[in-house]
């Protein structure tokens, strides 16, 4: 282990490892990379506790493009991430997303979002209630006006498979990983010079990347900086159905999509079971070590789903857990790029539940900024730190 690195990344889950992969894969980058991770098990990482899905159905063009790149990257993942003959299979299940609209406001949002998505080539269609019922006969549609359905390019996959694939390939390409905890960030005026570790070591660096998920504000504070990111709890429930509707669709080989009910509850197949969650009625910041599920949310989820489909009236809970969103309180969008004054401090934070699906494009973008001093493939400047300084939200209407 060296005493100094060109790039030090704080956080070794999917975001940090994606940055490390893209840096070490780029022949134009010839520097050294160190990833520092506090928890070798990743047991409480947002990556590990995610519902592991990707969609192209966003309202902002940059978010659509970020996910379109993510979709193709996930499809190609096994070949790209091969190490010593091992090709990691993410089990990408392209079931699609299904947004249901009940009110005039929801309908307007779906139509506006759809125009953006189609302009960028996303495979998304708008259906009326009759078309919905034909495609997904188990659903009750009498209260609906419109739906938006992703026919391809959306679905779910292995969360830890994505993270471990990035990690293994980055290591094979020369990145170093260190299990330790950053307790201080060393700064000289407007320049980060290194990090101090819990083990007592200090490591110098040329560029520092904050990829510490829900702890992003803690990391920034060690450098005397601020970022509007805090941990918000999301509970996930897995249940069995007495009579499963999976296989009943008349589209996509009978497979059901990830459905977002107008109530805010979502549900998707998970093997022989179903996985579901909802937007909390009360959504405060929580302690970084609080991972106790909000069990009362399942009653609301069950009610919402039973109202939507007879198939969900008789269910049995089989598993549950809680994870943390790295929640951007300004606008629920990722902050990617350098600080406006401390230019060698880079943010990859505040994904607000979209980190797993956005990790390929953000990792590539951050690596480009480090290598070239600019974004070259997708211009991520709209989601940079400058908007935090200006206190100007970059709003995304399609937030789950």
From TrEMBL:
- The answer to whether the entry has keyword Chaperone is no
Answer yes or no on keyword Ligase: no
What Pfam families is this protein classified in? DAO
Q: Which GO terms describe its biological process?
A: mitochondrial respiratory chain complex I assembly
Task: Give the InterPro entries listed for this entry.
Answer: FAD-dep_OxRdtase (IPR006076), FAD/NAD-bd_sf (IPR036188)
Which Enzyme Commission number(s) are on file for it? 1.5.3.19
- Cellular component terms (Gene Ontology): cytoplasm
Residue ranges of every copy of the FAD dependent oxidoreductase domain listed in the record: 6-369
Highest taxon listed in the record's lineage: Bacteria
Question: What are the recorded GO MF terms, alphabetically?
Answer: 4-methylaminobutyrate oxidase (demethylating) activity
Supply the alphabetized keyword list: Oxidoreductase
Q: What PANTHER family does the entry give?
A: FAD-DEPENDENT OXIDOREDUCTASE DOMAIN-CONTAINING PROTEIN 1 (PTHR13847:SF287), SARCOSINE DEHYDROGENASE-RELATED (PTHR13847)
Record-given protein name: 4-methylaminobutanoate oxidase (Formaldehyde-forming)
| Native source species | Roseovarius albus
